[in-house]
Specification:
By secondary structure, this protein is an all-beta fold. The protein is built from one helix and 19 strands.
Length: about 280
Amino acid sequence: ATTGCHEVDLVQRASDGRVLAGCSNPFAEQSFHGPRGDEVVLVDATRPTAPRKAGGWRFYGDRGRVPRVDGVGCFGASFNHSVRFADAGETLFASYWDAGTVNLDVSHPADPIPVGRARIVPRGGDGDSHSMTLAFGGEVLIVNPEDFCPGGRPRGWGQAHVFSNDDPAHTRELSVFSTWRSRRNRFDGIYTIHNTEVVLEDQAFSSWYSDGIVWWDLSDPRNPVRIGQFRPPPAPDPHGVFPNAPMVWGVYPDPDSDLILASDINSGLWVLRPQGMGGF
């Protein structure tokens, strides 16, 4: 069954002033093989007291295919995990598990259209694209595969994949950024990437579960370099679901305070100051 909105993004468009909310609605297409099956949902929230659906998109149905419920890897399923607007609300990136990332032209929200290739999928792995972000004014695209299968191919957990996006219709993978723990088949924690946020166009901060927050430099997108890292001390999950380890899955750069906010599932909120960075 559909789970409702999993992740939401909001933008006020420069072109027409409309406020759009984007919603990822996991498993909706597999649950409803009709108009209600949009896993990418666009809502016109210009009047917050009277929001209305402005459009939607289905990965399979809008390409004339039958929805699949199976997939690959240790979590074999295909569903939309997150959405993020770009280009002042004219573009939306939809990140799918087992299907990669889709760049949608939403200049006409009622009729989203894929840009170029139908999918942006990192080499190897299961295609479990959790989320994405842009750098260098949109010319570089970072895809974050949340791959929980360290024993598969390639070896290791999910890592950051850097693409050239100067021609959005023809993206090219430039490099892979990883931590030494994420490159190994170890099970004393969870070492896949989750989210990445970029400041100053080339400084990336990633939430990386048991690797905490990883700060890496994108000055050369073909050769990203780790700058720093913060791993909270291990803490037990009060609900007994996750391991007794750092479990950071949220990251937010706050430009008003020049601080990085990190949320750990087990131990709570951490407030970090990147040493030597200055303001952003």
